[in-house]
Amino acid sequence: MLLSNEKRLKIQGIIKRIAQDKSITLEERIYVEKYAHHNSTISLWLKKANSFRRNGTKNDGGIDNLLQSFGIDGLDKENHFKPNEDDISDWFGGAPGWLRRS
């Protein structure tokens, strides 16, 4: 999905406000989610922004910083995969459509 420069800037502005834990409207959230569902780059931006909002920016150079830079939900203990309890297909069930298809 190609984006115009105007749409990209609008999306980046909304995502920046999410990362800073500033308020956004429901319409803005829906707008960003629509594009994140079809575009892996926007999905990554949104995951990173949500991580920054929840955990603050990790600049210590540790593993948390690495996880956050990749947009991986590894900072929250409840998001970790437990091989003895979790089914791998269920665990990835919430993945965006572009990831499920690959």
What descriptive keywords fit this protein?
6 helices, 102 residues, mainly alpha, 0% strand
Explain this structure:
There is one protein chain. The chain has one domain (5-100). The protein has six helices and no strands. The protein has helices spanning 5-19, 26-38, 40-55, 63-70, 88-91, 97-100. Helix 1 (5-19) runs parallel beside helix 3 (40-55) and helix 2 (26-38) crosses helix 3.
* Residue runs with pLDDT of under 50 for 5 or more positions: none
* Proportion of helical residues: 55-70%
Largest sheet: none
The helix-and-strand class reads mainly alpha
Number of self-contained structural domains: 1
Termini gap:
17 Å
Name the shape in a single word: globular
The gyration radius over C-alpha positions equals 15 Å
Provide the succession of SSEs.
HHHHHH
Mean pLDDT: 77
Beta-strand percent range = under 5%
